[in-house]
């Protein structure tokens, strides 16, 4: 099949939109954290993006999407992108765009997925340990999961589907975040006082840019310009809007005041929750899903942070983990082709449930083991002095907000 210029143009734009999400993530997370650790977040994200990009070109794409060896990981036939065409498509993945463009689009996912964990490990992991962590986590956890679900591995062969990353990205990140938070432990002085955002405008700007970038994230996963991408944009926007209203309302009822932090987190929760189903559901069913997504993720944050006292500074465990699980399973209910509510029986539902359980367990167990090994060898926590003074001044020698005389 020849390359389609319209599809190619759309995928060029979609890839750039997803790239925008990476600095947006830095703005969002740093705004919600304390000002003495802002630089550390941006350093993790920008250094991480560069490192993960190089890894993807050298061996990551081949391990993720290359010919399968065991059904769990690909081989190295496409290392350094050898054999990936620039003037022809990779027919098995994206038949109407250049092969290198498919690589580039998936690169953005490979960058942002490990970096979503920065919000959970914020303010207490050593930068040197962070580098080791994201390198090992990406190689041992992310690449195999991509291959199993998107790269023709054994879960794909069973029929597990994930339109834009609800299983591969959000379920994995949510369960990995839980493991990381348990091993790292709480920040010193954990409580309401250290959860006060230092800059609401930064967080709002970051969440707004994440919302914009998510159109490329979800609709770009159609891998073509057309009706699926168009419906996905509408579904994505609706889910984010509904979930934002749900979080705003629930926070108002719970605290007596409407919360802007809850509202922007609700918007992100809606985006994450609709991701796995965004290419398979209609607008009206996305509305129903978004209500459930908003309620479940808000309840998840209250349970994890306030009841269980797990220190997850930006709520990644609930926003990604709870919504990844629910959104992926909801595909088996609401998918217009094969969903239970559309006469498809329980086949797709049971397959989706198996997929999220396997990937959730894989993400949690291997992240926990990796963190424990690092804890016993190189160490993972910053010192008491560094945590008190702030990572920025001690580790990076610069602060986000310098005072000029």
Could you describe the 3D structure shown?
This protein has 15 helices and no strands. It has helices at residues 5-32, 38-65, 99-115, 118-121, 127-149, 154-158, 166-184, 200-219, 227-255, 260-274, 283-307, 316-334, 347-376, 384-389, 391-396. The mean pLDDT is 95. The protein starts with a helix and ends in a 9-residue tail after the last helix. It is globular, with a radius of gyration of 20 Å. α1 (5-32) runs parallel beside α3 (99-115), α5 runs antiparallel to α13 (347-376) and α7 (166-184) runs parallel beside α13. It has 405 residues and is mostly helical.
Poorly predicted runs are none
The secondary-structure element order is HHHHHHHHHHHHHHH
Distance between the termini: 65 Å
Beta-strand content: under 5%
Taking all Cα atoms into account, the compactness measure Rg is 20 Å
Specify the helix fraction band: 55-70%
Helices, by number, come to: 15
Mean pLDDT: 95
In short:
The protein is mainly alpha-helical and 405 residues long.
Q: Can you lay out the helices and strands and say which pair or pack?
A:
Elements: H1 5-32, H2 38-65, H3 99-115, H4 118-121, H5 127-149, H6 154-158, H7 166-184, H8 200-219, H9 227-255, H10 260-274, H11 283-307, H12 316-334, H13 347-376, H14 384-389, H15 391-396
Helix pairs in contact: 1-2, 1-3, 1-8, 2-3, 2-5, 3-5, 5-7, 5-13, 7-12, 7-13, 8-9, 8-10, 9-10, 9-11, 10-11, 10-12, 11-12, 12-13
